[in-house]
Design brief:
By secondary structure, the chain is of the alpha+beta class. It has six helices and eleven strands. The strands form three sheets. Strands 3, 4, 7, 10 and 11 form a five-stranded mixed β-sheet that branches.
Amino acid sequence: MESNLIITPDQLSRRDLISRGLKGAAVVGLGSLAFGGILDDSPIVGRAMANMPDGALDFVAAEPCVITCTATLGPCYHSTVLTRRDITETNNGQVGLPTRLAFRVVNVDTCEPVTNATVDIWHTNSAGVYSAPISTFCNGTDPAVQTMRFGRGVQPTDANGWVYFDTFYPGWYQGRVTHIHATIRIGATAMATTQFFFADRVSEFVYRSHPNYSNRPVRDTTNATDNVIGGAVSRVLPYMMSTRLVNNKYLQAVKTIGIRTTATTCAA
């Protein structure tokens, strides 16, 4: 049985956390891992995961105590009341690289964690398709996918400002780099709606090496060419997630989200 995972927002030290301006608890145990039901035990996937070299999926992003600016909501949002940590829907045949998302919400004016905010996320499955009955741009006219809700969920922040989601690494689709949408609310008020991204080399390695992704065409978009966040590298860096592969079994992805007591007005 795997031991509990101890994590910091930037996967570094308490000293580094403090130097970046973040206050409150510096580390938090993720508790018993709940990936038993979504780890693919097929020999092909097992071999691919076992052969991933150390550091292949590791990336340490900046985690300062600064405001998280707004990025477009996009056409694929679907209002849901699914308060849940596991958003995989493996019972609906969803597969992919198991990924644990950890978001920490902080007040940028005090750098203290925000308790009882909600983080509402949505992203594609491994094939680059969104769930729910939304725009045909998001999932075509597939009636089965439109009845599903994979890649969607809401979680309230705990006393240290953390929320966690167990999911699969998102797939790409034309014109968009790998990303995760998020809306952060206090009560019913949306404080920020934004998007988070992954290092290009991490996505490239997943898409080339993992059997649930490698049968798709080569992706056509990078962080620099994305039609939402593309352009200067400095533009995407504040929204990059820190990642690391754990025990050659699942990806851990972490991000700090900075909000104020009024809705965000800056644009990403």
